[in-house]
Amino acid sequence: MLNRLLPAFKMGLGGRLGSGKHYMPWIHRDDLITAILFLISRDDLEGAFNGSAPTPVRNETFSRILAKVLKRPLLLPVPACVLKIILGELSEMLLSGAKVVPYRLQEEGFEFQYPTLKPALEDILIR
């Protein structure tokens, strides 16, 4: 999803989606790969594990931090009705959100290299 948001944000046209109040689970790609390897290496674990960072953020916060990391203004919110017209059913995925926290993964001892959003975006976008 980040790749779809980046062009608008890089041009200084990024903004929250809809009300911006919905949560956006996210995870740095390095943490996701490390988590998968961690789980594969553990024969004693079964069932579902959330592949998300331990600090979910609302879309408005995600948008603000992304704009700040890119050193761009946060100007234009995208109304939900516009997203629905442009993206149809896909807009529901962007607007519904979920507050996902990887409790089981953390309980099993997994440590995130990027538990918070700003350092994760800085690593992906600046390095």
Structure explained in plain terms:
- By secondary structure, this protein is mainly alpha-helical.
- The chain has a single domain, classed as NAD(P)-binding Rossmann-like Domain (Rossmann fold, 3-Layer(aba) Sandwich), CATH 3.40.50.
- It contains 7 helices and 2 strands.
- The protein has a two-stranded antiparallel sheet.
- The longest helix is centred in the N-terminal third of the chain and has 12 residues.
Give the total of domains.
Answer: 1
The low-pLDDT segments are none
Strand content: under 5%
The helix fraction, in percent, is 40-55%
Entry summary:
The chain has helices at residues 2-10, 29-40, 59-70, 80-87, 90-96, 103-107, 117-126, and strands at 23-24, 57-58.
Key terms:
single chain, 3% strand, 2 strands, 127 residues, 7 helices, mainly alpha, two-stranded antiparallel ribbon, Rossmann fold
What is the topological layout?
Elements: H1 2-10, E1 23-24, H2 29-40, E2 57-58, H3 59-70, H4 80-87, H5 90-96, H6 103-107, H7 117-126
Antiparallel strand pairs: 1-2
Helix pairs in contact: 3-7, 4-5
